Amino acid sequence: MAETATTSSKTFAEKHAERMARLKQLHTQRNEARASNHQEVIAEHERKKLPANWESRQRQAEWLMGDLKARTEAEEKGLDYNRVKMLNVSAAEADRIDKLKAKKRNADPGFSDYEAQTARQYNRLVKAMPPRDLVKYEEQKEKYGDAFYGGPNVILQGLHKDTPAAIDNMVKDLEGQIAKRKKFSRRRTHNDDADIDYINEKNARFNKKLERFYGEHTAEIKQNLERGTAI
């Protein structure tokens, strides 16, 4: 009987010790989870302070660093990095890259507003007419400073002297624009009963624009001029 009681007592003590150890472990895990949650809240708060595109910029920076490292290793081995890089690109990926490059070369987002259209035309003209003499270009840029770009408060008269070659390039570009515009011009119907107040088709279109914007404000003046009673 004494041995049975001792055995039961030991079993209870062991169970109690195991439960206390388990409780201590759970308490430790709870503290660790609490600390981890607190750190995650702080990290999330810090991430909210970063720019919206921070993750993409970070991925791009990591890719650039990896690409630079791989290029350096290839050059040290005397290998062509572009060729080595293409060996690790699948045919589907290469086709996708080619399509993206072609889309960038022939990007045409279409008409959005007149300001964007003007900016697109300006960029196209700048790309089509690069400076021929880069040394002279840099000299003029250093000489004129901010006036070289012709800001809103800069008087360009007398600063630049256009060369005959530059004038020929401008004339050539204008002729190209006129030829391209003629391909897309549509023929408009002619009204025989309308008053002829123009000398050619271009002048007629200009007069229509004036009438559309200022017609209601100049109707009386026009009538007085037609009657000969204008003061």
UniProtKB/TrEMBL annotation:
Spans annotated as Disordered: 1-46
Pfam families xref list: SYF2 (PF08231)
Feature: compositional bias, Polar residues: 1-11
UniProt feature coiled coil, ranges: none
A GO-annotated cellular component: Prp19 complex
Keywords assigned by UniProt, alphabetized: mRNA processing, mRNA splicing, Nucleus, Spliceosome
Any single biological process term in GO: mRNA splicing, via spliceosome
Bias-annotated ranges (Basic and acidic residues): 12-21, 29-46
Subcellular location as annotated: Nucleus
Function noted in UniProt: Involved in pre-mRNA splicing.
Family: Belongs to the SYF2 family.
Assembly information from the UniProt record: May be part of a spliceosome complex.
Name of this protein: Pre-mRNA-splicing factor SYF2
Annotated organism of origin: Anopheles arabiensis (Mosquito)
